[in-house]
Hints:
By secondary structure, this protein is mainly alpha-helical. The chain has 23 helices and no strands. It is elongated, with a radius of gyration of 36 Å.
Amino acid sequence: xxxQTVLFILLVLPFQLFAQSVDELILNKQYDKALERISxxxxxxxxxxxxxxxxxxxxxxxxPLLACKSLEQAIFYDPQNSLYQAExxxxxxxxxxxxxxxxCYRRAVxxxxxxxxxxxxxxxxxxxxxxxxKAYQTFEAIYKVDSTNVYFNKQFAFAAFRTGxxxxxxxxxxxxxxxxxxDFGSHLNLIAVYKRKKEADMVYSxxxxxxxxxxxxxIILRRQAEALFELKDYERAVFPFxxxxxxxxxxxxxxxxxxxxxxxxxxxxxALPILEKCFYIVPNDQYINFYIGLIYxxxxxxxxxxxxxxxxxxxxxxxxxxxxxxxxxxVYGSSREFEKSISALEKAYELxxxxxxxxxxxATTYEEYNFNKxxxxxxxxxxxxxxxxxxxxxxYALGRMRKIKEDLFFENK
Length: 413
């Protein structure tokens, strides 16, 4: 009996020590030796656990492709192991094989449906391939089980945002930044969600809250400023633009938007040098020329205004030409160049025949400067017929038509 026990110890104990030494080698980061010993054991008796350990070593050596091959072997011997599926998904992810990553995590979740960590990885994998609907469904399932996990709620908020559920995204993001105010990305995403909802007040307050955590952060300042600018809240856009430009290099887009915001918030004296600076950087930009022209128009410097507006027209794309010709016509009218004024106004209407009030302006231009009363009468008539109930100055036009007809009658007597 004693001889059999000794024989058992001599035969079995070395294998146990051998197996333990592999783990020890891995812990001590002696990866080459660990691989050698694992390889010997696999040759003697291939097992899923050995292939898994081999994959761990390859992963530590930054060899994810070899790790994937080892994990595929581990899964061959133990296809019901969710850990192996998840580890394979992680290695595929590091290789950029995003669709294979999704499949691995999906199989892992099927094998371990109550593992929220695996579901979270599957949800993030769906986000990586822009499958926002499935990502939303995955994180919604997690939320029903655990609604307090800030990390999962962050992913859920993003999925909600990308599937158009903006109200839910707002609730989730507000909860996330309240519980974890240092989450920089969630502050930015909250500003983006409010911008999509066109809620300028909340864009502003969200930016203020983010800046209280990250004072003077240029990314937040720019996001807040640009969002407010897009929502036409020009007065409140000015301050974050200024704060951003004080400490950061100005791109032409930021500088231009800042100048336009100043103009549209009626700070013309400050807007002009900003936009002129932009003009010297990009002299052929239609917007820069246009707004400089409008500023000079406000200053009653009609020659310079006409110069910039004409330049804007030369640079403009068709959707914006009508408005530019419209302002140019007004400038020519103010500088008493009536033929040029009417020509520009007619061009403005030709480019946008839904702007009926331009017809009214043409009529008043013909009449006011006694250029041609018959043409004024005709344009008043065209204006009323074309605009119909949309004619904002119908009463005035009708009154002037009666007056012109009386004048023409007495002139022909």
